[in-house]
Amino acid sequence: MNRLTWVDNLRGMSVLAVIFLHSTIAVNGNAGHLTGVTETVNHLLSPVRLGLMFFVSGLFVESGLKKGFNLFVKNKVKSILYPFIIWVAIYGGLKLLFSSVSNNPQSPTNIILSHLTGGGDITWFLHSLFIFFLIIPWVRKVPFYIVIPVSLAFSFLLPAIPTGSVFSGFDNDHINRSFYLFTFFYLGDMLVKHQVDIPAFIGKKSVLLPSLACFIVLSSLNLVLNRDVAWQLLAPLALCSIPLFIFVALYANLKLVHFVGMNSIVFYLSHYLAIQVFAKAVKFTSKNVFINDLKFIAAFACALLLPLAICWLRRRGMLNFLFTLKPAAQSVYAR
């Protein structure tokens, strides 16, 4: 599958939603006049925010496997496992360095094991994605009506990692969440495998209108039930909402969204560094709503400016080694 604008737009929308969430966390949820907006947006997008990124990744399984399994794995080692190791070293190293002043101090063993097993604050995405690519050649042979229910059952039934365990991390449900997100990845691959013309398919009213209805129901349940309902039970609605987001991605004409999508790995992995620095540096609290407005806007701006600076440097042949083992000629800028 060739790189398509709507694919980059969809990925950009997903990454920006993640950055928006982390910017809200950086100001402890107090975004001034925007607090109601941030709470609503973050809550409504929670079932699909990361699912869209995994869905997009699944779209490229078929083209990768056509090159041969060995080359398929080799490419994933270069583009996923390698940056995972690099950024585990960066984030884990920073945790080790500043563990004495951390709000939630962890032992060196805990930091290392939690990151390497997918419990890292931001690197867990690459951990799960690499595993998905390794297992998909066999799982894709199983019918969807078995894969999706079984994945959601594991997601729902598996116990969380014990809080006191050396493997515990920022989210002890991350294995459960990975099984949930695998359904999005599998769906993306299934559509391409069956040669579905995705833009034409979702353009049908018989597909788009039910998708819109599913997202409205999903949103309503999210707002009414809050966290009293397991996300696995909402998975069918979340999966059926994907055509709606593809439709938006098809007709979105925002350069920032497209740019973020083209450089998604840079924005995803590096923005959290800016968020952490901002949260540590800007600790003052204020009752002035306008100051809180500015704090949130500043957090969001910082989370975008660092990746943008890295993209600028990468375009000039620097820092590419942080994100891939592939030579710069194969990077997005060469395309």
From TrEMBL:
Localization per record: Cell membrane
The keyword Transmembrane appears for this protein: yes
Pfam families: Acyl_transf_3 (PF01757)
Main subcellular location: membrane
UniProt keyword list: Acyltransferase, Cell membrane, Membrane, Transferase, Transmembrane, Transmembrane helix
Domain (Acyltransferase): residue spans on this chain: 5-313
GO cellular component: plasma membrane
Recorded coiled-coil stretches: none
GO biological process, one term: enterobacterial common antigen biosynthetic process
Transmembrane domains' residue ranges: 12-31, 43-61, 81-102, 122-139, 146-167, 208-225, 231-253, 294-313
A GO molecular function held by the record: O-acetyltransferase activity
Membrane topology classification: Multi-pass membrane protein
Family in the record: Belongs to the acyltransferase 3 family.
This protein's name: Predicted acyltransferase 3
Organism: Erwinia tasmaniensis (strain DSM 17950 / CFBP 7177 / CIP 109463 / NCPPB 4357 / Et1/99)
Organismal lineage: Bacteria, Pseudomonadati, Pseudomonadota, Gammaproteobacteria, Enterobacterales
